[in-house]
Amino acid sequence: MKAEDFDLLSKIIHQRSGLVLGPEKAYLLESRLVSIVRKNNMKTIEDVAQALRIKRDEALIADITEAMTTNESFFFRDQKPFTLFQKNLLPALVTARASRKHIRIWSAAASSGQEAYSLAMICAEESARLQGWRIEIIGTDLSRDMVTRAKTGIYSQFEVQRGLPITLLMKYFQQIAGDKWQLKDSLRQMVQFREGNLLTDPGVSGSFDIVFCRNVLIYFDIPTKGRVLNTISGLMPPDGSLILGGAETVLGISDKFKVVPGEHGLYVPAGAPTQTRASA
Amino acid sequence: MKTCLIVDDSRVIRKVARQIFETLGFSCSESENGQLALEASQQAFPDLVLLDWNMPVMNGLDYLRALRHLPGGDGPVVIFCTTENDMAHIQMALGAGANEYIMKPFDADIVRGKLEQLGLMDA
Questions:
Q1: First vs last C-alpha separation in chain A
Q2: Min distance A134 CA to chain B CA atoms (Å)
Q3: Which of A49, A126, A205, B70 is the most buried (most CB within 10 A)?
């Protein structure tokens, strides 16, 4: 690939998704764009770059961005954040929101939906203490394909085995074909999926008590990380909670959030009272 | 070191499973049917059993039932690992005392995830 084509494409991808592509990623870009070249009846990646120089084709840009953004995900990924949610965050909110009986949760960069559905399964498991509560779980992703997929709640035999205990598979899924499993309607109704871009229009509004935004910031440069954290901060009450991925932090990036001592991966708005959250 | 008994009539599967479990820090032994697995289990209970369903001589379900009837036989964690992938089989396995269930084909990620859920490995 020509250097000027790589520069153009990586700049467009960065603008659209925040993903930073160093020159060492040229081979990856080439391999991921093969299908787009074919789909658009073009011959080479040069043709793709040339088409974008002539006209800012939004559909083409969306396709390129989707091809480059990774979508790996599985149920209860890393487990610890979900234990934290079930044992600490949810009980604390049941107390704090006792009068409103309404909790809103955002799974940002939801990919194919496993994180959002994992949270829904936990809420279903805790249904005894959530009687009469309204629990909103919203998943957003910048990929239209991923949002469509997530809404179906259909997963392969491989996907339903990664991180998902067999008892939860039995309880919340139905087998729709030999190796395809679908979340039951009762679970799917607990989650909404929408398109949203963390850099431009997150696709959600209002206020979220808990935001999961894991393994997203690692792909961004520092100014972009800061912008995303600012956006999330603007959608969160002072007693909200932000969960980042294991390799991510707010330190040195944003003063809107602070770490919670002893709780790896958990961040709270900077104005929140300093105390470790009591376990339920 | 935690011990894992791999029970499968396919030598290829046993080899793949052994590789995965050894990488995850288990000491492995192998049996090619339920009868041999039961004899091995009576000598010393493993911490974990990875158990195929369809095998000659004694199948996995019969092994599991026999294991659970032994004094102390409720100790080993048993993960079924089989091509049987329908609700009825899964229910039958859990009813007989299986702790987890893997539908073949499987890979190291699936095994690791199951072990984390069972508390046999740190997440």
A1: 56
A2: 29
A3: A49
CA distance A140 to A109: 6
Tens of pLDDT, residue by residue over A197-222, are: 999 999 999 999 999 999 899 888 99
Contact criterion met (CB below 8 Å) for A163 and A76: yes
Which pLDDT band, with edges at 50, 70 and 90, does B123 fall under? Answer: low
Helical pair A45-54 and A26-39, crossing angle rounded to 10 deg:
80
The owner of tokens 């396995």 is: B93
Most B-contacting residue of A166, A172, A174 (CB-CB within 10 A), to test interface: A166
Mutate to test the interface with B, among A74, A161, A180 (most CBs of B within 10 A): A161
Non-local (6+) Cβ contacts of A141 within 8 A are A109, A110, A111, A147, A150, A193, A195, A196
Identity of the residue in B90, B103, B110 whose CB atom sits nearest the CB atom of A170: B90
Question: Residue for token digits 């940002």?
Answer: A108
Residue A247 has a pLDDT of 87
A161:B110 CB<8 A: yes
Domains present along chain A, CATH in parentheses = 3-68 (1.10.155.10), 80-269 (3.40.50.150)
The predicted complex's ipTM stands at 0.91
Domains and CATH numbers, chain B: 3-117 (3.40.50.2300)
Token pair 């953004």: residue? A69
Q: Residue B47: pLDDT above 70?
A: yes
> How far apart are the C-alpha atoms of A202 and A198, rounded to whole Å?
5
Token pair for A126: 């805790």
- Return d(Cα A221, Cα A237) in angstroms, integer: 26
- What torsion do the CA atoms of A203, A209, A212, A216 make, to the nearest 10 degrees? 50
In Å, how far is B78's CA from the nearest CA of chain A?
13
Residues A166, B100: C-beta atoms closer than 8 Å: yes
